[in-house]
Amino acid sequence: MPAIRSFGLTKSYGERRGVFDLDLEVHEGEIFGFLGPNGAGKTVTIRLLLDLIRPHAGRAEVLGLDTRRDAVAVHAATGYLPGELALEPRLTGRQLLTYLANLRRGVEWSFVRELAERLELNLDQRFGDYSRGNKQKVGLIQAFMHRPRLLILDEPTGGLDPLHQETVQALVREARDGGATVFFSSHILSEVEDLCARVGFIREGRLVQVATLSDLAGMQAYRVEADLAEAPLIEALAAIPGVSDLALNGTTFTCLARGDMGPLIQALASYRPHRLVSQEPSLSDTFLHLYEGTEDRPDEKTTPELRQRARPQECG
Amino acid sequence: MLRSVLLATFRGQRRAALAWGLALALFTLVTMWSNWRNEYPTEEARQRLAQQVESGGLAFGQVVFGEARQVDEFAGHLEWRGLGLFPLLIGLYMVIAATGVSRGAEERGQLDVLVTAPRSRSRLFVEQAGGLVLALAMVCALVWLAALFSGPVAGERVPPAGRAAFSVLNIAFVAALFGSVGLLVAQFVGSGRAASMTAGAILVTSFLVANVGLVSTAFEPWRVLSPFYLYGLSTPLTDGHVSVGALATSASITLVCASSAGWLFTRRDLGAAVRIPRPRMLQGPVRSTGGRPWLLGNSFQRALRSALGPTIAWAIALGVYAMLVTIVTPSIRAGFEDLPETQQAVERLEFVLTSDSGIISSVLFLTLPLLVALFAVTLASGWANEEQSGRLELDLSSPIPRRRYFLERAGAALAAVSGVVAVVSLAFLGTAWLAGLELEWSRAAAAALLLTLPAGIVIAFGYLVVGMRVRATGSVLAVSLAASFMLSLLAPALDLPEAVRKLSIFELYARPVLDGIRWWDTGTMLVLIAVFLAAGAAAFGRRDILK
Predict the structure, then answer these.
(1) Set of chain A residues whose Cβ sits within 8 Å of the Cβ of B290
(2) Residues B15 and B143 in one domain
(3) How confident is the model at residue A299 (pLDDT cuts 50, 70, 90)?
């Protein structure tokens, strides 16, 4: 049974705002990264899954439960960290967690204390007096404290120092090892690479890609850089299938190459290369290329290949 | 409008200033039309009113509208009944605006970026204060226009524009003074709401001290301490008198408060309050900053806990108000005993001022339902802020059905109102007993306890709006309540049919001190509360949560 499954989920706030026809499947027990630029629809998706907002079309299931009809049961099984945590500033961390634990019932306070110790949080300070990172720790504790079957974390390490980012990553792994599913959105790509088995990319409210990390790397263009004995004929190299973004600086040639690299290497060999480097693509490259052409990156244009790839695909 | 902090501050205030200005202008026009043209339409009726003032029979009117002078002339009547309440109301606007612009903005984190802009903190403060002055000018300009138009509306000539301008300027000086008090209080108090409540309490106390002093010798010596006393020294519309000394004193206090606030703002930590050192003997043992986790068991308790501070403040303020009016009741009755013609005129408006129970009903229980309902408005409209700031996000992702959460919150608001009503009831009944008023005690107690019902309708209606369109809650409630009160106030003069009158919650509440409990109307109010809450819960269960 998938932990999260949506069927044509749609929530529209205008032409390109909201979530459109979202078909998503997150497997039970996996850590799923949900990536997208600002305003892409990540938070809308999360709020739809938690029944905080209602879809205009489609539906979703969480742990086999309908998110609308069985909202209370979904909430009972879910731990949620919102992207922008807002809580009563006059209450202390302890008071806030007591209140939220009382709403949930069945929270072991010893586990709350353990989480606070691991995150080095003083619970007796007022929420309004906490630093941004400490506020985030309160949010994290309340998301983890009832040992939920599903964790939905929106930017979980935002505001935390590297040491505590590692602690959060450890908590996420422990939750996964304990059988929980983790669905989290993040902009910290190294974190996603470290933690996630699969990632989903959302752009302008549409799911453009769901893939394992290894799949993504295979689809991504390699950056090729070559120092040549003489300047090559650019038009000839541009005609090679899979080669794009060509640039020549003196006798240093760079390009992106997808698919079979044989023809490119044969062509470059005729210009007697002194140095030839091919860089493996990072998730960051994938991320940036998938968002080419969006409002966040107005200088770049979507390549035909990416447009092709941007079509919604079956979850891999 | 976003070229400077001054204009941006004004821009942030422009809608509220326009709404306040228009509402107050409408109040002036309707009051002068109904009061001057309908209530006192003849020279004879107006002279009777003046005689009544001279004999001390308009005690409550003077407590509410200030000192009455030359009320048989249009200009004097306008300055008293048409504008007399405005130093308090515009002062209240300035308190809310000033604490919102300073501490409120700081609390929301809006000043974090502004203070890092390449301009000094003192300049930022001065520009914010300037923006508030522009907003005040907008409100006052609308009131000035209303004062001018009130002449033709009431069948009189247009009052002299210059005198009207000075009269409004006199109001503006007092309002600005309380705006500066708001700015100063905001330096010492850590939250916007607490700052506005503290400054608001100072405003209301000053108002009561000055105006109760007009009718009670016990308070008379204290009047000079109140800024409203300075306001009363100038009567530009009535007789052209402008006390330059009073205006200068008012302006000086404003400058001292505002510059002290600015000085403190430039020196203290952003987001922190100025700490007042306590003498060592008053210092208690060192405590953990965390309080005991009481009243956090569920969303009902949590909402009750949040409302505790305002509930205590409102209970004290309204309790004191009930005690004051109860204390002056014998003097009001004595003032009317020798004026049978005035009694008849007032009785046409369904007021009874010849007995203790009549005065308590016509004065105290005319205003208390409105005041308790205003408290209910603040409780219901607080939801919008909470929801828009995202504070409900975690509550609503907890395993609690939405409708139950909604009803628990509404229940907490009803409990808070009941708490205020209980305190007011004790204050009123205790004072009335000590003062030896002749009341039918079961009816008096019923009148006090039934105050819960109109306020309960306001809460239930407010929660219905929350369930449907949360952003509109504050404005819909304010307009509905004002319309309901105006309908109740004007119904006798306009001789409106019973069915129309019953649209007002204040007409449903009616006069329990005189007439006892009207079970049909009481049942109607209970049914309305239940229906509004049920409809609100159903609507809330269906709508999106804002963020």
Answers:
(1) 92-95, 123-125
(2) yes
(3) very low
Same domain, B104 and B250: yes
What is the per-residue DSSP string for chain A?
Answer: --SEEEEEEEEESSSSSEEEEEEEEE-TT-EEEEE--TTSSHHHHHHHHTTSS--SEEEEEETTEETTTTHHHHHHHEEEE-SS----TTSBHHHHHHHHHHHH----HHHHHHHHHHTT--TTSBGGGS-HHHHHHHHHHHHHTT--SEEEEESTTTT--HHHHHHHHHHHHHHHHTT-EEEEE-S-HHHHHHH-SEEEEEETTEEEEEEEHHHHHHHSPEEEEEEESS---HHHHHTSTTEEEEEEETTEEEEEE-S--HHHHHHHHTT-EEEEEEEPPPHHHHHHHHTTTSTT-TT----HHHHHHTS-----
* CB burial readout A25-54, b (16+ within 10 A) else e: bbbeebbbbbbbbebbbbbbbbbbbbbbbe
Rounded Cα distance between A237 and A218, Å, is: 22
- Percent of chain B exceeding pLDDT 70 equals 93
Other CB atoms within a 10 A radius of the CB of residue B431 amount to: 18
pLDDT at B338: 66
> Do the Cβ atoms of B400 and A124 come within 8 Å?
no
Q: Is residue B279 included in any domain, yes or no? A: no
In this model, does residue B285 exceed pLDDT 60?
A: no
pTM: 0.71
Indicate if B400 and B532 belong to the same structural domain.
Answer: yes
Q: How many domains does chain B have?
A: 2
Is the pLDDT at A194 greater than 70? The verdict is yes
Residues B154 and B260 in one domain: yes
Section B397-422 average pLDDT: 95
Does residue A100 sit at the B interface (CB-CB below 8 Å)?
yes
Taking residues B346-374, what's their average pLDDT?
Answer: 84
- Encode pLDDT of B105-131 as tens digits: 888 777 877 777 777 889 999 999 999
Give the closest residue to B134 by CA, choosing from B97, B102, B164: B97
CB count, 10 Å around CB of A250?
Answer: 8
Task: Give the rounded percent of residues in chain B with a pLDDT score beyond 90.
Answer: 54
Nearest Cα residue to B300 out of A87, A102, A90: A102
- With respect to residue B278, please indicate whether it lies within any of the assigned structural domains: no
**Domain co-membership, B211 together with B359:** no
Residue B287 clears pLDDT 60, i.e. is over it: no
Same domain, B373 and B502: yes
Q: Is residue B401 part of a domain?
A: yes
The pLDDT-based confidence of A15 (bands split at 50, 70, 90) is confident
Predicted confidence at residue B526, as pLDDT, reads 97
Looking at the domain that runs over A221-280, which CATH code has it been given? 3.30.70
Q: Out of B288, B290, B302, whose CB is closest to A99?
A: B302
> Per CB distance under 8 Å, which residues of B are interface residues toward A?
107, 190-191, 288-291, 293, 296-299, 302, 306, 389-391, 393-402, 542-545, 547
Whether B257 and B351 map to the same domain: the answer is: no
Domain assignment present for B286: no
Q: What is the pLDDT of residues B213-262, one digit of tens each?
A: 887 776 788 899 999 999 999 999 999 999 999 999 999 999 999 999 99
Highest mean pLDDT among B273-277, B354-358, B426-430: B426-430
Instruction: Kindly list the domain boundaries of chain A, sorted by start residue.
Output: 4-216, 221-280
Q: Are residues B411 and B524 both part of a single domain? A: yes
Q: Which of A90, A95, A123 sits opposite B296 (nearest CB)?
A: A95
Q: Look up the ipTM and state it.
A: 0.72
Q: Give the structural domain span for B477.
A: 301-542
Higher pLDDT, B309 or B399: B399
Closest residue on chain B to A88 (Cα) = B391
CATH superfamily of A4-216: P-loop containing nucleotide triphosphate hydrolases (3.40.50.300)
